[in-house]
Amino acid sequence: MNAAAVRYLAPFAVGVAVLLLWQALVQAYDVPSYLVPSPLLVLHTLMQDWGLLSASLLVTLRITVLALLAAVVLGVLVAFLFVQSRIIEASLFPYAILLQVTPIVAIAPLIIIWVKNPTGALVICATIVAIFPVISNTTLGLRSVDPDLLDLFRLSHATRWHTLVRLRIPSALPYFFAGLRVSSGLALIGAVVAEFVAGTGGTSSGLAYQILLAGLNLNIPRLFAALLLITLAGVALFLLVTLLSRRALRHWHESEVSASA
Amino acid sequence: MNAPAASPTVSIRGVDKVFPNGVRALDRIDTELHQGEFVTLLGPSGCGKSTLLRLVAGLSAPTSGTIELVPGGDAARLAFVFQSATLMPWASVEANVRLPLDLAGMPRAHSGERVRAALALVGLPEFAHAYPRELSGGMRMRASIARALVTQPRLLLMDEPFGALDEITRARLDCEIRDLWAQQRLTVLFVTHSIYEAVFLSTRVLVMSPRPGRILREVPIDEPHPRTDAFRVSERFAAWCRQLSELLAEGHAEERIVQ
């Protein structure tokens, strides 16, 4: 068996084995579905409640994608600001860290109170969670330029603009994408956590709200089905970002060159 | 060709360089570079030869003394070749070579021909669309030299360009530089720690000693051009190498006495 087949088949086989074991144990010990539903029941519930759950999935996905876009735009802008001068970075970076370490569950209620638009409030929460890796990685990337190449640009009388567009930004891309991968997962987590906080106020109908409601109603199969959708959404988002990164870097960066070879 | 032309194109007068950390890199450097010369700065690492090259390029300023580039002379059009190939990994060989022309605002219609010519000069025309990672170390260095030549420089500053290459590739690239220097009638200021390279290429060698970097002696390599592989194995070649080697050893001994 070749290496590529192992890479895809091995995790698939593990997954199937775990699901089979799960199904067998639930049936053998007759575990009630309000404690642990069997995988088949979860799948059945997912199909039965598809109308409700898919609508919720779209709500959560919309918040996640908007938050990720906001994190990218704002994070990159902040990184550009940071590399303008060490003083700016030194004065502001501690506050970026503050943003990173503040638990979102603690400030989400405030944001939901302050921001009238419920979607807007959730997007802000998820953006706060997702933005830090973009800021720190892009800043690092914009600074990690080959000093000899910088000298070459100086000798060629390059403008600041040319140095930014033709040297700093391409140098920063691998760092930026590494940050984006982390941020894509964080955006989803941020969206779900914010929904949990807001959901009790009935301001949203995303997947987290469905989980909350299903839990209250002891509709555990639906809870599992919603959980499954969140997980799948996270994986899909990660794969999408990975694909983007590969397309952008495949010709030259070691991380993607070896992966696609 | 061998005798230095009368007009200096770079005059270095009483140049000192002290780094912010207090290290005295260069101490009272006085020399001139004439049009058409191939001058080599030879010395152990840490003797300030690369620093001197950067001063001539204008990449840093001397602490005291002056470096005068004669206006309209060869130094007015200089190009720099770095120790490593210093190519942009995200750009094709062609785009890398075209970079200085792009930065100067030359339209693509004009630059295309210049890039092709430069790649032909270094023997890389069929690798125009390759990426740097697909090339060997020697080919990358050729692309780097093509990027310097594309601006049609008169003065070429080279900072240990072949230091990272294997001996065989290095000997071949030395021959190519020898030919480029003769064909393009360039003035070259070359940094190396290889005695053989210095003897093979130079019209004049400036032997330097470390800490602080000083010029111990100027040695004109009085041999006809073009120099061939036969010269590399001749007794005269060995004699030049011995002379330079002894000078370097003297510099080393002096350094120990100073310490």
Q: How does this model look, in words?
A:
The complex is a heterodimer of chains A (261) and B (259). Chain A is mainly α and 261 residues long. Chain A has a single domain (49-260), classed as MetI-like (MetI-like fold, Orthogonal Bundle). In chain A, 84% of the residues lie in helices and 0% in strands. Chain A has 11 helices and no strands. Chain A has helices at 3-28, 39-48, 50-84, 86-101, 104-114, 118-143, 147-155, 160-199, 207-216, 220-249, 254-260. In chain A, helix 3 (50-84) packs across helix 6, helix 4 (86-101) packs across helix 6 and helix 9 packs antiparallel against helix 10. The two termini of chain A are 18 Å apart. Chain B has 259 residues and is α/β, with parallel strands linked by helices. Chain B has a domain at 1-77 and 174-259: Rossmann fold, CATH 3.40.50. In chain B, 39% of the residues lie in helices and 24% in strands. Chain B has helices at residues 49-57, 93-103, 108-121, 137-149, 167-184, 195-201, 229-232, 235-258, and strands spanning 8-18, 24-34, 38-42, 64-69, 78-81, 155-159, 187-192, 204-209, 214-220. In chain B, a hairpin with a 4-residue loop joins strand 8 (204-209) and strand 9. Chain B starts with 7 loop residues before the first strand and ends with a helix. Residues 1-5 of chain B have low confidence and may be disordered.
Briefly characterize the structure.
With 261 residues, chain A is mostly helical. Chain A contains 11 helices and no strands. Helix content of chain A is 84%, strand content 0%.
Q: In terms of structural class, how would the helical and strand content of chain B be classed?
A: alpha/beta
The description of the largest β-sheet of chain B is:
6 strands, mixed
Biggest chain pair contact, residues each? A-B, 22 and 23 residues
Query: Rough shape of chain B?
Result: globular
Contiguous runs where pLDDT drops below 50 for at least 5 residues of chain A: none
CATH class of chain A: Mainly Alpha
Task: Name the helix and strand elements of chain B from N-terminus to C-terminus, one letter apiece.
Answer: EEEHEEHHHEHEHEEHH
Strand content of chain B: 15-25%
Structure summary, number of beta strands of chain B: 9
- Rounded to an integer in angstroms, the radius of gyration calculated over CA atoms of chain A is 22 Å
Total helical elements of chain B: 8
Mean pLDDT of chain A: 90
